[in-house]
Amino acid sequence: ANLIEYADPSSILPENWTSIRRAPVCGKDSLDLIYNSARWTPAQDVPPVNGCMEVSPPDRPFIIQEFVAEAASWRVIVIAAH
User: Fold this and answer.
1) Is residue 45 packed enough to be buried (19+ CB in 10 Å), middle (13-18) or exposed (0-12)?
2) What count of other Cβ atoms lies within 10 Å of the Cβ of residue 75?
3) By the 8 A CB rule, do 81 and 61 touch?
4) Tens digits of residue pLDDT in 5-49
5) SS in 3 state form for 8-74?
6) Backbone φ and ψ of 38, nearest 5°
7) DSSP 8-state symbol, 75
8) What residues contact residue 59 under an 8 Å CB cut-off, 6+ apart?
9) What is the pTM for the complete model shown?
10) What is the pLDDT at residue 24?
11) Which residues pair with 65 in a beta bridge?
């Protein structure tokens, strides 16, 4: 899931769910990529990519993260953007 400009997603997340936050370095926007940590783990061999889609002025954050399934050998790439 993708949350945009949410103050603190940890207060609403169900058990085993967590977030990767893109801090507001792209203008005023914050961005959270929400995932089920009981089923998925961020890939350790591929670093996440994040940045701003608009450069001048910096705006519109994004996160690209690869995940590895806990129960299988699946890998997926997830993109969260605003």
Assistant:
1) exposed
2) 13
3) yes
4) 777 777 788 999 998 887 667 887 888 899 999 999 999 999 889
5) CHHHCCCCCEEEEEEEEEECCEEEEEEEECCCEEECCCCCCEEEEEECCCCEEEEEEEEEEECCCCC
6) -80, -20
7) E
8) 26, 27, 29, 52, 53
9) 0.83
10) 62
11) 78
